[in-house]
Amino acid sequence: MPLLEPWISIAVIVLLAATLFHAVRLERRLGVLKRDRAALEALVKGFNDATIRAEAATARLRGAAEGAGKALSAQLEGAETIKSDLAFLIERGESLADRLDQAVRTARQAPPPAAAFVPGAGALPRPAFAEPAATPEPVPEPEPRVRSQAERDLLRALKLAR
Fold this sequence. Notes:
Blueprint: H1 4-109, H2 149-161
Helix pairs in contact: 1-2
């Protein structure tokens, strides 16, 4: 056995050297893995923080959208009311315009007076070819009357329609 002992010692030394080499290599890989694990944990923590912020922002955005929707709904209801008021005013304006147009047509179609009465000439009518009568004094224009809010709105709507 003395002959085998040195060979067994050399084999054990070679195996120990290979084990030592693999242990060092494994230690380096474990070190890299620990560093990568720390970086991965930091990455996961950052991702979780970003997710929490995104969820909070989504909730705020949802609340703002609901508030804007309610405000828009209220404005639409007001617009519908104004639309119906304007439709009513337009109908009334059209009927007034029709009546005014009819009155103007009737006045244009009425026959002019046949003869004018001249004071002092008796009951005889003055001939149409006689000298013109004195110009009548200008009639003062009536003072402008105060218009109601509905009339002012109608006039404004008619001006905008042109």
